[in-house]
Amino acid sequence: MNGADLIAKILKMEGLEILPAFPHSDLIDSCAKEGIRPIIVRQERQALHIADGYTRISAGQRLCCTTVQYGPGSENAAGAVAQCYADNVPVLHIPGGYPAHDAHVSPNYRASDSQRTITKWCATVPDIGRIPLMMQNAMSVLRNGRPGPVTLEVPADLFVSEAGAEHLSAYRTVSRSAPVADTASLEHLADILLDAENPVIVAGQGILYSRACEALRNLADMMKIPVISTLNGKGCFPEDHELSLGCGGGSRPDVVNAYLDKADVLVGLGTSFTRSEYITPFPTRGKRIVQLTNCENDIGKDYPADLGIIGDARASMSVLIDILSARAGARDGRRQHVVRDIFEMKQRFSQAWRPLLESDEVPINPYRVIGDLMKTVDRDRTVVTHDAGSPRDQMTAFFETTIPHGYIGWGKTTQLGMGLGLVQGAKLARPEWDAINVMGDAAIGMVGMDFETGVRNRIGTTTIILKNGLMGGYSKYHPNASEKYGIEVLGGDYRELAQALGGYGERVERPRDIAPAIKRALKRNREGVPALLEVVTREESRIPKNLPSCL
Asked: Could you tell me the pTM of the whole model?
């Protein structure tokens, strides 16, 4: 047994099933000996994106680990590690490192030095004897507290160094802890909720990771409190529920804005309340802000918190619900009108945008694609995601998610091309579900060759390209360069790309063909064949300006 074998056996003990990787690491073969399936991608960043999607769809309950070659392989992976860090995704990354005698030679890249600012925990294994304890430490950091990626760099010479049975016997498996918030703080929160006139819950990704979706629904129903999900938390509360306001992304239904304006209390549950241009800004004047999170660094980070509570979302909400139940007699009927008001506002918004969601325009209106997608798929067994830019903004406000993990929302940082890896990882985690990502021309240019990764590994997903031949919206930033040199214009036949790489490809040019094409694509997916639909669309800037704002 060598160092790579030792790590592989530990990963097997911790339940690892797949290992996204590229192009070489001794860990690949050692994991294969343990029955852990390697998923070889076409570029390192894709390995992390697959692990990211796999982890999110399984709520962090199933371990996903990646490995890459030392030096340039590790350098190429760093961007995707940063994406995991920005979106709080607990992925274990075990890159190779330069052999110990070369580790400090300039300009050799050391992940343990360079990735400290984009990981929750980052270290290099110094010798074989430290592997069991450092792996246990890594797993503990990965599974507890605020989620985030962990990097454990293993020098190439340690992968092949001899390890003994005593090293494996020194390892102890790691479980997750779910600390309950202080009871006095939860009593205080109960007082605030009972006293509030117009409270609004802002539910984040922590609800998904702690599996607190049912508890959130019970709390909202009990107190008749409207719920906004964050972009990363989209799906933690069913968006067809009578108390759902929708997702608070960069684009959002106007009912979100209306209730944020009228709220006197904002209750953040499982959210860091991060401020970003891709996320709804939260007004603070005249409002009390309460935050329940499992990380003390989140409290008051971007917004002043009148009450900050540290604890696991599900465990703490269970206690809060018990406290509120015991005070049932103290509640009155002040918020019985909320359901009616939400319904009326959502109906007005839906009716105003319906002409776009059902448009027969040619080239196809991108909102028609979203509308048909939502009508065509079985949303109780489908996961969808978007890419950065226009597809994200178009999807967030209009694709109504009905179940936890039916939507992977992301975007605290917005690396183009990420949607393909996310949806491939999601399909690997839940092969019985349909898995669909929506991208634009620029995004497919970043990761198009990894469509072949899906073909080779029989990962049956559907990629919908909203093809308008442009980097949409960028002309306004570069008016001279666009007019003189056409820098925003993009080209390519993505249907033929998919076919050339061994998958199913189809071009859609008429609105009435969208739904049938989606059905054909999903049928091929169920045979293990990835599909790509190239939908020829118009630029969003041509959409009428007299609609209720979703920004």
From this structure: 0.95
